[in-house]
Amino acid sequence: MATTDLAVSCHEVRKHFGEGETRIEALRGVDFSARFGELSFLVGPSGCGKTTLISVIAGLLDRTAGELAVLGTRMDDLSGTRRVLFRRQNVGFVFQQYNLLPALTAAENVAVPLLAAGTSRKEAVDRAKSLLSRLGLGSRTDALPSTLSGGQQQRVAIARSLVHEPRLVVCDEPTAALDHASGEAVMGLLAGNAVQPDRAVIVVTHDTRVFHYAHSIARMDDGRIVDVSRPNGSPRTADRGPTDSSVQEVFA
């Protein structure tokens, strides 16, 4: 099923919750693919299955049926423990509700994936602080999540998804809490990551302001992919990502 240019390949993927009268069919036979070197968007009305699909792709949810390959690995071939290790090493996930640990500082939250991979605490926190500085949060690295605005928490969550340099980044509404300029800068960082030949980024979004970054846009409705388009022209970051200085200027 998987081919060398596909970072993600889904065939007839299904997911339901509950049984009997309470059963909900969240995914109804999804065919979806995301290519290496590209930023793929998933769009559609609320409740159509977008978050469920990316959660299945990221290994946070088990699918009910269908075939799934991620980064050339068939997920059926991985046991529970191996799947956790695979996700830890290869996948970054930006949650819509941020899911920051309230007792940890911003830098410590970002450092979590590195610490889980065995990086020393000093190196992990140093790398986290460096990335947060790129996102305009250099003065807030020691702040607790409760003292950060929604937009600042969103940027911490995005930094956490990128800090361990995963090959696949999956984002649920990454610009929802950001103003236009901040959203553009964050999408620039994600797109700059996506265009590397061994990387891919999948973004769930309702934010039409950032559609110009997409290499492909898959539209979902009622648990299915109903249309896939490849916008004319290339995203503005197709040749290069934003420079550190351009990102810092936005968040200054």
Shape: globular
- Summarize the main sheet: 6 strands, mixed
**What would the CATH topology be?**
Rossmann fold
Using only CA atoms, what is the Rg? 18 Å
- Overall pLDDT score: 89
CATH class: Alpha Beta
Low-confidence stretches: 237-252
Strand composition percent:
25-35%
Instruction: Spell the H/E element sequence.
Output: EEEHEEHEHHHEHEEEH
**Share of helix, binned:** 25-40%
Quaternary structure state of the chains depicted: single chain
CATH superfamily (homologous) name: P-loop containing nucleotide triphosphate hydrolases
Number of E-state strands: 10
Order of strands across the main sheet: 6-7-8-3-9-10
Instruction: Please give the alpha-carbon distance between the first and last residues.
Output: 46 Å
Number of helices: 7
Class inferred from helices and paired strands: alpha/beta
CATH architecture tag? 3-Layer(aba) Sandwich
Overall number of structural domains:
1
Question: What does this protein look like?
Answer:
- The chain is an alpha/beta fold and 252 residues long.
- The chain has one domain (6-251): P-loop containing nucleotide triphosphate hydrolases (Rossmann fold, 3-Layer(aba) Sandwich).
- 32% of the residues lie in helices and 25% in strands.
- The chain contains seven helices and ten strands.
- It has a six-stranded mixed β-sheet, with helices on both faces. Strands 2-1-4-5 form a four-stranded antiparallel β-sheet, covered by helices on one side.
- Strand 4 (65-70) and strand 5 (73-74) form a beta hairpin.
- Helix 3 runs parallel beside helix 5 (150-162).
- The chain is globular, with a radius of gyration of 18 Å.
- Residues 237-252 have low confidence and may be disordered.
